[in-house]
Amino acid sequence: MSADGQRSLTRSTAAALAAAIVAGDVTALEVTNAHLARIDEVDPAVHAFLYIDHEGARAQAAAIDAKIAAGEPVGPLAGVPVALKDIFTQVGIPTTAGSRILEGWRPPYDSGVVDRLREAGCVILGKTNMDEFAMGSSTEHSGYGPTHNPWDLERIPGGSGGGSAAAVAAYEAPLAVGTDTGGSIRQPGAVTGTVGVKPTYGGVSRYGLIALASSLDQAGPVARTVMDAALLHAAIGGHDARDSTSIAQPVPDVVGAAHKADVRGLKIGLVRQLMGEGYQAGVSQRFDEAVEILRELGAEVVEVSCPNFEYALAAYYLILPSEASSNLARFDGMRFGLRAGDDGDANVEQVMSATRAAGFGDEVKRRIMLGTYALSSGYYDAYYGQAQKVRTLVANDFAAAFDQVDVLLSPTTPTTAFKFGEKLADPVAMYLNDIATIPVNLAGNCAMSLPIGLAPEDGLPVGLQIMAPAMADDRMYNVGSALEAALVNRWGHHLIEEAPAL
Amino acid sequence: MSSQTSISTEQVAHLANLARMTLTDDELTRYADQLDHILHAVARVGEVAADEVPAMSHPQPMVNVWREDVVTPGLSAEDVLAGAPAAEDERFRVPRILDGE
Amino acid sequence: MTTTDTTLTFDDAIAAYDPLLGFEVHVELSTNSKMFCGCPTEFGAAPNTQVCPTCVGLPGSMPVVNRTAVESTIKIGLALNCEIASWCRFARKNYFYPDMPKDYQISQYDEPLCSDGYLDVDVVDADGNHQNVRVEIERVHMEEDTGKLLHTGGDTGRIHGADYSLVDYNRAGVPLIEIVTKPVPGTGALAPEVGRAYVQALREVVKSLGVSDVRMEQGSLRCDANISLMPKGSPVWGTRTETKNVNSFRSVERALRSEIIRQSNVLSSGGTVVQETRHFQETTGDTTSGRVKSDAEDYRYFPEPDLIPIAPEKQWVDELRAGLPEAPGLRIARLQQEWDLSDFDMQSVVNAGALELVVATIEAGADHSAARKWWLGELTRIANSQGTSLAELAITPAQVARLAELVDSGTLNDKLARKVIEGVLAGEGEPDAVIESRGLAVVSDDGPLLAAIDEAVAANPDVVGRITGGKPQAAGVIVGAVMKATRGQADAGRVRELLFEKLGVTPE
User: Fold this and answer.
1) Model confidence over A370-415: pLDDT tens digits?
2) Is residue B30 one of the residues assigned to a domain?
3) Is A184 known to be catalytic?
């Protein structure tokens, strides 16, 4: 295949690829090879992938081609490549969650998300980089080195799912799956100019998703367009009986909503607590412009107040470490993964302690200790208990707001992509990246980030967050699709096309 | 509230022991500092007068999610032991529980 | 405690101190699958063959509650007169141990499924009087079992001195129910007996529900016995110890007795009891020091976020309540009255493990004295000689009932019935088939009997003379000879009738 041909395949949307493959215009294998070639070309600089499954991906693609040739039914995303965050188990494929403690571990079972991807006919290209155990906003906490932002390789791609967002932004894959515990899909989406969605909690199976904070974690789609995100969301979403927290209802019609793209008569709320002070000027400017576009498209825009959002960050940084300290206990060197210090003389407690000291990175240790503290007797009520009450208050704020409006808007992040090392020394400054994304995780409803332009001062992408009530995921696709269409109409292209060549 | 949040290196050592992580003296000092800093920030949750507010452990108001008592296929001993750092006689081999004499 | 001289006896100890008891009993449920995954629960499978990502705690795995385990727990709670929570959650108990796959145990903390119940137990005091002791139940909650450790190297497979250990996770995740009592005060010298009677009564209750094998020797019922002593009249509770590894009813009693003596000697010599876990040693009858419960232990319980709260509907609980079997204690009292037995006779039935068999035999048509007679007599003798239990004998209550019916109707006499039992146990089929194939029916046709009587009369003229001479009791010799001639198949009563008829004698 010609270089131009490869380029057009990697620049194509997932929707277009799926249509072309099923129509026989191009084979799944050609599409997969084009993306593998792109990965081999740019990933040494981007480092979006921790594992590239060349052979496995080609075999999956060839199997899809054989099915199509035989006239057998195929899934809605047949032959479309997808990059998988390295937090999902996939049989026989190294799965590390970005941690040295899991180096070389090959799971004996598939996650629910992998099951759904296979059913949809997706070709899994490999596993993407992430902050260790999804703890971070920059991928600087990956045990395997950071991912670089395709817009500026000196800057962070966001986190924890920086690998998934960068892979999609760098045309290494049209689609990726991420996980979002406090913004780990949306914040990377915002800083890489891609679309990232955190579905309603319980909307996508967590079975086989290596847990960070069980009551906050949610898997979701990463794409370059709202429609592509909807297609992937529909493919991976839905009930899984192996996850007790999975919602036993059909996925809302997110694809239909992305087609609808009509905000006339819709009431949109701007969250007072998630604007203004503390937000970069260019971020606020692009946000205001996007709101104005929605108004022009026929939406009614009002301001709403969610006073308890002020406490969301504090509550989040108690609940997350608490659950994580327990979820990460099993990484003890006994049944899988790394074992350190087993010299035949050391006892089990010493070996566990040495293993965890050697295998966990700095941020993971910090949060485990924070969570251990917050749950320990004498402190539980003041920290974890109180944080759970704040959670109720945040959910109540959302409920009151959604009584008035259909969706809520905010900038996704306070700033555009920052430089490596800028916030590494100050954990609290790093945590502030998640200020706007965290409330949704606490309450369990859904949100999307989509690109709305470049900040004039640094030329880097700005994201807008659309928040909708639980199980009203379709609303954010409707609004996002309408806004995206208006922006593309204005610019003449998708924002991602302004990214510099790698 | 904030008066409570002063973390000593001894406390960090205790937490590290509870969490089974061997820390160096440098780490103990650094984490004591950082945990102190973080705890000051998160102690804000105590500012909300929330005695009557129910605690929320689960984001959805669901109840009674269960399965019927039916046996389903699992993993073979071979598969489950394949990832083990050490195995012997179809079992996971782990270091001694108690110190030797 | 190694060198304290034992100077106080049990009686001395009880004279000076009041014991305060408490029990934590773990019951493994006999569900088909584990508590949170679909792996089988059978005992004795090859290591690590009943496992999956969930019960080995692989990264990414998730638990899903077994509905039958919840139902069984509610049944136990109801049988122990507990309140059933309208809403409760699972909680994680965090601690590291290699037999615990996730390094936390899914359990319940401050929201148990069942709470505030009681179980009445019957103990007999030194004067032989029955005393009812009400043991109050604090809570009944659900949790998961751990894997099994095998200690290797060193001596005799014990944890002490082992070089390393091997783990089998087949048992990890098997549903476990923990039944915790409130402190039991005021038992005095009866404390050891109360302990034994409580565990025994609890076992009967759980067994009657059919939710567990409750076999102490296999570990499907495990008892931890807590005890503390306080000086007589003191309102302040003493420091308690928790004795584990108590594997039989008798051990419960022995362990409590030994611990009362040990603690009283520590206290009377001015020492303090250490709060610790102790292990009962079957061979010596003593307890030995185990793990010291230090302040460092902090389980950091919090609600299990991977599991949704349980909220049993009232209608479901009501249905389970209505379907409960009669409480074992009440049932025994009722049957004793119905069968008109003395305490001793009723206790014999229970102790022989014959209660359910006798009840089933009566249900199959036998009267209670016949049912009791066969199970406690011939069948117990056979079971003892074979070193097995009544329940394991290859004869059913229905077969015993048929046997009783055949004896009652005169088709069999006791001697023949024993031969029929022998045939049934040998696998020769139903009692009627054994009678047929072995030709065992009582000969009731007078013809062959008369011929045999003629022969016996002819052979024993002197005996005949004694009978006709006014000593009818001498007829036994002739009857015996006839029985011998007919290989025991004659109806002895009929032989006697025919003999007297023939000799023209009228017995008084």
Assistant:
1) 999 999 988 999 999 999 999 999 999 999 999 999 999 999 999 9
2) yes
3) yes
State pLDDT tens for residues A272-303. Answer: 999 988 899 999 999 999 999 999 999 999 99
- B100: pLDDT confidence band, cut at 50, 70 and 90? low
Contact C92 A326 (CB under 8 A): yes
Q: Rounded mean pLDDT of chain C? A: 90
Could you tell me which chains touch chain A, where touching means 3 or more CB pairs under 8 A?
Answer: B, C
Cβ-Cβ contacts under 8 Å for A116 (sequence gap 6 or more):
A205, A235, A236, A237, A238
- A449 part of the active site: no
Our answer to whether residue A410 is catalytic in this structure is no
Contacting residues of C for B78, CB less than 8 Å apart: none
Question: Is residue B1 included in any domain, yes or no?
Answer: yes
pLDDT at A31 over 50: yes
Task: Give residue A41's identity as a one-letter amino acid code.
Answer: E
Please state the domain count of chain B: 1
Question: Between chains, do C89 and B20 touch, taking CB under 8 Å as contact?
Answer: no
Tell me the domains of chain C and their CATH numbers: 21-185+209-225+301-315 (no CATH), 340-438 (no CATH), 446-503 (1.10.10)
Q: What single string gives the DSSP state of each residue in A77-111?
A: TTT-EEEEETTB--TTS---TT-GGGTT---SS--
Residue B29 lies in a domain: yes
Distance between CA atoms of C170 and C150, rounded to whole angstroms? 13
Chain A 425-444, residues with CB within 8 Å of chain C CB atoms: none
A387 in contact with B at a CB cutoff of 8 Å? yes
Taking the C-alpha atoms of residue B56 and residue A77, their distance in angstroms, rounded to an integer, is 38
Q: How far is CA A145 from CA A49, C59, C162, C455, in A?
A: 11, 22, 41, 111
How confident is the model over C384-410, as pLDDT tens digits?
Answer: 998 888 888 999 999 999 999 989 888
User: What CATH number does residue B2 fall under?
Assistant: 1.10.20
Could you report the predicted ipTM of this complex, rounded to two decimals? 0.96
Q: What is the pLDDT of residues C94-134, one digit of tens each?
A: 999 999 999 999 999 999 999 999 999 989 888 878 889 99
**Higher local confidence (pLDDT), C123 or A430:** C123
Q: Is the pLDDT of residue C325 over 70?
A: yes
Range of the domain at B13: 1-49
Q: How far is CA A223 from CA A10, A11, A95, A212, in A?
A: 13, 12, 22, 23
Q: Given the residues A12, A99, A184, A246, select the one marked as catalytic.
A: A184
Residue numbers in B near A369 (CB within 8 A): 12, 15-16, 19, 21, 31, 35
- Secondary structure (3-state) at C42: coil
Per-residue pLDDT at C424 exceeds 50: yes
Residues from chain A that touch B18, judged by Cβ atoms under 8 A, are 372, 376
Digit-coded pLDDT (tens) for A328-353:
999 999 999 999 999 989 999 999 99
B43 inside domain = yes
Report pLDDT digits (tens) over C303-314. Answer: 999 999 999 999
Ordered structural domains, chain A, with CATH: 3-308+400-498 (3.90.1300.10)
C-contacting residues in B 9-68 (Cβ below 8 Å): 14, 17-18, 20, 57-58, 60, 62-68
Contacts of B90 in chain C (CB under 8 A): 46-48, 168
> How high is the pLDDT of residue B1?
39
Average pLDDT over chain A reads 97
How open is the CA angle A170-A103-A361, to the nearest 5 degrees?
A: 85
Residue B80 near residue B71 (C-beta atoms within 8 A):
no
Contacting partners of chain B (3+ CB pairs under 8 A)? A, C
Q: Are C276 and C243 in contact (CB under 8 A)?
A: no
Nearest alpha-carbon partner for C417 in C396, C397, C434: C434
What's the pLDDT score for residue C2? Answer: 45
Q: What angle do CA A275, A281, A285 make, to 5 degrees?
A: 75
